């Protein structure tokens, strides 16, 4: 992954992932190294394969959805917030298949081919995640 600072205020980066890069790992490393406390991002590009998740409230866990084919990243959006002292990602994606069908969910893993172009904007202040006992998920708290 390569990146470039586009604007110092608000701090905005262009991140470009290359073929073979794993997106979640790259985004997490970028957020952690910069100690991001609040940020949002969007992206377009393509994956050679991916793994999505669907949160099943009844079992308080994700059903994994493997995507073992080349797909277009039609929309990838997410945020970064603190969970304890660590930057934590929350990413959703909609993928387009060869036949025009779409599939979406939480992005758990995505292997880029040929590229993924991300615009990430850091926000002033911070967002804090806390474990929600009802869902078992670290949710953003604004109080």
Structure summarized in a few sentences:
With 143 residues, the protein is mainly β.
Task: Indicate how many domains the architecture comprises.
Answer: 1
Q: Spans with pLDDT under 50 lasting ≥5 residues?
A: none
The CATH homologous superfamily is called Hypothetical protein, similar to alpha- acetolactate decarboxylase, domain 2
Query: How many helices does DSSP assign?
Result: 1
Terminal CA distance reads: 35 Å
Helix-strand topology string: EEHEEEEEEE
How much of the residues is beta strand, in percent? over 45%
The CATH class assignment is Alpha Beta
Q: What is the second-level CATH architecture?
A: 2-Layer Sandwich
The biggest sheet, with number of strands, parallel, antiparallel or mixed sense and barrel status, is: 9 strands, mixed
Helix content estimate: under 10%
Give the averaged pLDDT, no decimals: 96
SS-based class: mainly beta
Number of strands: 9
Shape: flat
What's the Cα radius of gyration? 15 Å
**CATH domain topology:** 60s Ribosomal Protein L30, Chain: A
Written overview of the protein:
This protein is mostly beta strands and 143 residues long. It has one helix at 23-33, and strands spanning 2-8, 11-18, 38-56, 61-67, 71-83, 86-96, 102-122, 128-132, 137-141. Helix content is 8%, strand content 67%. Strands 1, 2, 3, 4, 5, 6, 7, 8 and 9 form a nine-stranded mixed β-sheet that branches. The longest helix has 11 residues, at 23-33. The mean pLDDT is 96.
């Amino acid at each position: 992954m390569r990146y470039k600072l586009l604007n110092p205020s608000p701090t905005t980066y262009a991140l470009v992932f290359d073929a073979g890069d794993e997106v979640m790992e790259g985004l997490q490393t970028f957020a952690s190294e910069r100690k991001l406390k609040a940020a949002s991002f969007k992206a377009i590009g393509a994956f050679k394969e991916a793994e999505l998740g669907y949160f099943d409230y009844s079992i308080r866990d994700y059903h994994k959805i493997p995507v073992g084919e080349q797909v277009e990243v039609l929309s990838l959006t997410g945020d970064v917030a603190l969970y304890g002292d660590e930057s934590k990602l929350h990413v959703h994606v909609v993928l387009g298949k060869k036949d025009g069908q779409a599939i979406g969910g939480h992005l758990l893993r995505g292997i880029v081919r040929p590229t993924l172009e991300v615009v990430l904007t850091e926000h002033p202040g911070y967002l804090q995640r806390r474990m929600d006992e009802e869902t078992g998920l670290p949710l953003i708290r604004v109080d």
